[in-house]
């Protein structure tokens, strides 16, 4: 009688084990039939650690492999009702496949899981691209990270141990950058730069990330490294020049500007930047020469005309101050000094008029012209400009 009870107990135990493993088989069949909601319920029951009946199925590698399949199928579905079954099905799929590999100590199912992971890589890549396009950069970053994670799994890596997916690494950097996770972006960009991906542009992006973190030194160091590797790239050079200018390191800025001009003498902004530096250094003659050089290279470079016109205008204003210092009893000398101011205003005028031709509605230009016409006593043009200013208000 006791033996019968024992046998019956064992039978019930085995039945429970097979019942839960049967849930796995059922889940797979339902998944294959496209009944994903039912498949999900079945596999959840078999993989539920808190379920006493799932003690054996929970530790069975096949359970997790099928769970991965079910979630992957949910992730691939275009049916909105199916999509509602999980907020992040591909992450669930990846975690399930990794759990299956962890439990499969003998590697019995490794080959099949490897194929599924390869397909999952494609799904995650597509998901990342789609998320990026709709500006969901956090999700894009997670998906790119998961692709890289899969590539490090031993059964995947063994086929090509030296392979480096620089495209995914770089795109992970872009996603992190757009998600405003600049420190994370720097890590990915530096990894991509190590393998020369995207050339000098990657160093420019590293620098931009540092600057957004208010780390100017980090930005400058990354640009210097980029310049050493890609000395012919003007983008890196320009970024370095801008930082040096922002830091008021005029000597360094001028040195790199000269390099930039030597590399490409056709870019007017290099000469303009030189002119601005010379003006800042108090070397007006060199500033005038380089502003004029800018105009030669690009006859419609607005800022060169404006800066040169402003330079001459300011010299006129300074000359008026000189005239004011003349004693009141020296009227002839006073008039002579004032005439010198008018000469500067006359020189400034054509540059400001050119600015007005290039940007007719620029309020700063109109104000400058108004003052110049007033100083030069051309009241017709003064009133004409005054009328334009009123219309723009």
Care to describe what's here?
The chain is mainly alpha-helical. The chain has four domains: about 15-160, Serine Threonine Protein Phosphatase 5, Tetratricopeptide repeat (Alpha Horseshoe), CATH 1.25.40; about 165-225, Tetratricopeptide repeat domain (Serine Threonine Protein Phosphatase 5, Tetratricopeptide repeat, Alpha Horseshoe), CATH 1.25.40; about 230-300, Serine Threonine Protein Phosphatase 5, Tetratricopeptide repeat (Alpha Horseshoe), CATH 1.25.40.10; about 310-393, no CATH class. It has helices at about 1-30, 35-45, 55-60, 60-75, 80-85, 90-105, 110-135, 135-150, 155, 165-180, 180-195, 200-210, 215-230, 235-245, 250-265, 270-280, 285-295, 300-325, 330-360, 365-375, 380-390. The radius of gyration is 36 Å and the shape is elongated.
The CATH class of the largest domain is Mainly Alpha
What is the rounded Rg?
36 Å
The pLDDT mean sits at: 91
Let me know the largest β-sheet.
none
Proportion in β-strands: under 5%
| Category by helix and strand content | mainly alpha
List the helices and strands in order.
Answer: HHHHHHHHHHHHHHHHHHHHH
CATH topology of the largest domain: Serine Threonine Protein Phosphatase 5, Tetratricopeptide repeat
Distance between the termini: 106 Å
How many distinct beta strands? 0
Q: Which runs of at least 5 residues are low in confidence (pLDDT < 50)?
A: 1-18
What does the secondary structure layout of this molecule look like, with pairings?
Elements: H1 2-32, H2 36-46, H3 55-58, H4 61-76, H5 80-83, H6 89-103, H7 110-133, H8 137-151, H9 154-157, H10 166-178, H11 182-194, H12 199-212, H13 216-229, H14 234-246, H15 250-263, H16 268-280, H17 284-297, H18 302-324, H19 331-358, H20 363-375, H21 379-392
Helix pairs in contact: 1-2, 1-4, 2-4, 4-6, 4-7, 6-7, 7-8, 8-10, 10-11, 11-12, 12-13, 13-14, 14-15, 15-16, 16-17, 17-18, 18-19, 19-20, 20-21
């Amino acid at each position: 009688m006791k033996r019968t009870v024992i046998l019956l107990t064992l039978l019930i135990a085995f039945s429970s084990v097979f019942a839960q493993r049967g849930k796995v088989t059922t889940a797979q069949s339902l998944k294959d039939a496209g009944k994903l909601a039912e498949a999900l319920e079945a596999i959840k029951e078999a993989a539920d650690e808190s379920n006493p009946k799932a003690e054996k199925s929970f530790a069975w590698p096949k359970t997790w492999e099928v769970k991965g399949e079910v979630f992957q199928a949910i992730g691939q579905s275009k049916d909105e009702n199916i999509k509602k079954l999980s907020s992040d099905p591909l992450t669930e799929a990846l975690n399930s496949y990794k759990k299956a590999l962890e439990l499969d100590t003998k590697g019995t199912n490794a080959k099949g899981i490897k194929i599924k992971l390869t397909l999952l890589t494609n799904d995650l890549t597509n998901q990342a691209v789609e998320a990026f396009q709709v500006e969901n950069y956090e999700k894009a970053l997670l998906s790119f990270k998961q692709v890289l994670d899969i590539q490090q799994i031993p059964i995947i890596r063994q086929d090509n141990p030296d392979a480096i997916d620089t495209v995914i690494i770089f795109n992970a950097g872009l996603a992190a950058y757009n998600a405003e996770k600049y420190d994370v972006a720097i890590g990915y960009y530096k990894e991509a730069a190590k393998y020369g991906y995207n050339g000098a542009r990657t160093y420019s992006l590293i620098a931009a990330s540092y600057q957004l973190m208010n780390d100017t030194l980090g930005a400058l160091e990354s640009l210097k490294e980029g310049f050493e590797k890609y000395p012919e790239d003007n983008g890196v050079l320009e970024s370095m020049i801008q930082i040096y200018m922002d830091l008021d390191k005029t000597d360094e800025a001028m040195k790199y500007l000269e390099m930039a001009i030597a590399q490409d003498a056709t870019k007017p902004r290099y000469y303009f930047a030189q002119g601005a530096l010379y003006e800042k250094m108090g070397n007006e003659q060199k500033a005038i020469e380089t502003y004029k050089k800018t105009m030669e290279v690009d006859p419609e470079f607005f800022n060169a005309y404006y800066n040169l016109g402003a330079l001459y205008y300011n010299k006129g204003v300074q000359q008026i101050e000189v005239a004011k210092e003349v004693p009141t009893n020296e009227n002839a000398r006073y008039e002579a000094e004032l005439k010198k101011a008018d000469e500067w205003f006359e020189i400034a005028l054509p540059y400001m008029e050119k600015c007005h031709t290039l940007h007719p509605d620029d309020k700063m230009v109109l104000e400058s012209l108004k003052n110049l016409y007033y100083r030069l006593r051309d009241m017709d043009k003064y009133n004409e400009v005054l009328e334009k200013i009123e219309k723009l208000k």
